[in-house]
Design goal:
Blueprint (H helix, E strand, L loop, with lengths): L1 E7 L2 E8 L2 E5 L1 E5 L11 H6 L5 E4 H6 L3 H6 L3 H5 L5 E4 L2 H7 L3 E3 L4 E4 L6 E4 L1 H11 L3 E3 L11 H26 L10 E6 L5 H12 L5 E4 L8 H11 L9 E3 L5 H9 L4 E3 L2 H7 L2 E4 L2 E4 L26 H9 L3 H27 L3 H14 L2
Parallel strand pairs: 4-5, 4-14, 5-6, 6-10, 10-11, 11-12, 12-13, 13-14
Antiparallel strand pairs: 1-2, 2-3, 7-8, 8-9, 15-16
Length: 376
């Protein structure tokens, strides 16, 4: 399943073998919430920019078009014509972030759809059933993501419930994987570590979920309002208590700097909406920091977004032209910026893997961070 190839300090270089192919880690998963990357990015585009894993959202696909529709269409891989690994998150985060009116019980959560207001109930079994219908490569456990600044008692109760829910997820996934009509009978379940910013609760939770011997583990509930320093402190505290011979996934993180720092602390799976969201607003990542192409100084700039970049935008178009497209609200402008940003992230992960293999990760990280901080 997971093969640890090389360690450089705490940084890990590995391979994760799945039914849909091998994932080279560290990896950045490109976020396609509703089975598409926002910004008119096609599956062919994803193949062209070196995407290894596509991430889709259980809650959003359950609401629209409906996971039964996806199952009838042969599962998510067939539906979106993508043959590499797909990770689906459990819907837990959306239930807690989107749903203002929700009721948490031991069975699960009752809430209203953000699309049409209809009542939805989701618990561990429902989340696993939806993800089984989607037939993703990796399914995430259904958990509660407590607010980062919640009080200790609330967080402890929430984490205890998340442990009970994880056991139910595992039982249900084992059942679903044994059924005749299940599309992906090799679906993998990752558990999620929670505990807000309480190190001792996090560590105890990490020990409990490690005992379940799952194929992989995530650190959830970070990048939700705490400082970067607090996030790094929690990662440093938790990672030693998660198995080194399994992938560690930091959910919803983050900026290039966040990723570089987290890799150094032993994390090897990442996802974040930043590259696509920022790209749609004309903000593009480079090795010299982030540029806002709406700025007037790029009006007559005939250079690509980044010299030497091999993404579809930089191989052909100037900053001036892309700025014009953005100002004119032409969709191509958004599309080119999103493609550039995703390529930048995917390519950075290639560089990270190479640096770890060569035993020079710390030096690489420092140079990369210095360059991005220096700016143009």
């Amino acid at each position: 399943m997971y093969k640890l190839i090389k360690k450089d300090g705490d940084a890990k270089r590995g391979e994760f073998h799945t039914v849909h192919g091998v994932i080279q880690t560290p990896v950045f998963m490109n976020v396609g919430t509703a089975a598409a990357i926002k910004g008119a990015v096609s599956t062919e585009d994803l193949e062209g920019i070196g995407t290894q894993v596509e991430l889709s959202n259980t809650y959003h696909l359950h609401v629209r078009p409906g996971d039964q529709v996806v199952k009838k269409m042969g599962g998510l891989h067939k539906f979106m014509s993508w043959n590499k690994p797909i990770l689906t998150d459990s819907g837990g985060f959306q239930v807690f972030s989107l749903a203002g009116l929700r009721k948490i019980k031991e069975e699960g959560v009752c809430f209203n759809s953000h699309i049409d207001g209809r009542k939805i109930f989701m618990g561990p079994e429902e989340s696993m059933q939806i993800q089984s219908n989607l037939a993703s490569t990796i399914a995430m456990a259904f958990d509660e993501c407590p607010p980062s600044l919640a009080d200790r008692k609330y967080v402890q109760n929430s984490v205890d419930r998340t442990v009970r829910w994880l056991k139910r997820c595992k039982t249900e996934m084992d059942r679903l994987n044994s059924l005749e009509d299940t599309i992906n009978k090799n679906q993998l379940l990752f558990g999620i570590n929670q505990g807000a910013i309480f190190e001792d609760i996090r560590i105890e939770h990490a020990k409990q979920i490690t005992e379940l011997d799952l194929p992989g583990y995530a650190i959830g509930g970070l990048a939700v309002g705490e400082s970067h320093e607090e996030m790094y402190r929690i990662i440093e505290a938790v990672v030693p208590y998660l198995p080194v011979e399994k992938p560690t996934y930091l959910m919803g993180v983050g900026t290039p700097a966040n990723i570089l720092e987290a890799v150094d602390r032993g994390v090897d799976f990442f996802d974040c909406v930043y590259p696509s969201r920022n790209g749609r607003h004309g903000h593009v990542y480079t090795n010299h920091g982030k540029l806002n192409l709406f700025n007037a100084k790029y009006e007559l700039d005939d250079r690509p977004i980044e010299e030497g970049c091999q993404c579809p935008a930089c191989r052909r178009y100037s900053r001036s032209y892309i700025r014009h497209l953005l100002k004119a609200k032409e969709m191509l402008g958004m599309r080119l910026c999103v493609l550039h940003n995703l390529y930048f992230y995917n390519h950075m992960m290639e560089e990270i893997r190479e640096a770890i293999e060569q035993g020079r990760y710390k030096e690489y990280k420092r140079q990369k961070l210095d360059g991005m901080e220096a700016g143009e």
